[in-house]
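Exercise 7b. Backbone tokens:
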């Protein structure tokens, strides 16, 4: 899990990168929760998502948004963080020029950034949006959503109530050729305290369906 530094729009960006063993392997980009509320690339959900993709043979990258850890710059209310995410995807693509496709996984604030990024990048084949804050951020740009993916929410989320993200999903799930799925983790709050294991199990189940079981991916 080598530490990396790459150039972003506000200076250096700190990340962790795990290259795939096989050339042409897909890319996974994982985006962390809100920088002003303790979100970093070492968030336990981000960490677990990162290794979920690594075990499937992806080249995986997680990084700190501007102003977090050793990443330079200051919080920019989403606009700058979207630029950071685009720079991160550019970097990981530059070291994986033969990559077949890309997945984006975002947590809370990172889910909002990730969904904006996939609207701009046609190479994104799938997404995971965990604890999307549909009550605080506008998701109306998902019209239509260009990639199939999975929204996951905690049943007891008080920070971003379940009904708000369901409203978003209802508006995009019927777009032609795109399948937007939704999973609810019973008893989980916004941070999935004590519920990370069932969360990751849900992610694995979805990725099995989309990509095939891990055993078939390891040598892909």
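Sequence design result:
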């Amino acid at each position: 899990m080598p530490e990396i530094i790459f150039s972003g729009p506000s200076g250096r960006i700190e990340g962790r990168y795990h290259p795939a063993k096989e050339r042409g392997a897909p890319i996974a980009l994982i985006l962390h929760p809100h920088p002003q509320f303790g979100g970093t690339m070492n968030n336990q959900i981000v960490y677990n998502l990162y290794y979920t993709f690594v075990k499937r043979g992806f080249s995986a990258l997680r990084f700190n948004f501007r102003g977090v850890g050793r990443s330079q710059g200051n919080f920019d209310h989403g606009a700058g963080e979207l630029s950071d995410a685009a720079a991160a995807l550019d970097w990981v693509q530059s070291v994986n020029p033969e990559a077949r496709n890309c997945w984006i996984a975002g947590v809370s604030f990172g889910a909002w950034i990730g969904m904006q990024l996939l609207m701009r990048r046609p190479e994104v084949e799938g997404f995971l949006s965990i604890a999307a804050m549909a009550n605080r951020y506008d998701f109306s740009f998902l019209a239509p959503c260009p990639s199939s993916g999975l929204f996951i929410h905690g049943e007891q989320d008080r920070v971003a109530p379940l009904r708000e993200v369901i409203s978003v999903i209802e508006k995009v799930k019927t777009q032609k050729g795109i399948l937007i799925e939704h999973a609810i983790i019973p008893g989980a709050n916004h941070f999935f305290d004590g519920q990370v294991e069932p969360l990751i199990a849900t992610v694995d189940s979805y990725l099995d369906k989309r990509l095939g079981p891990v055993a078939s991916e390891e040598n892909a």
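Instructor comment: The longest helix spans residues 79-94. Residues 156 and 189 are 5 Å apart (CA to CA).
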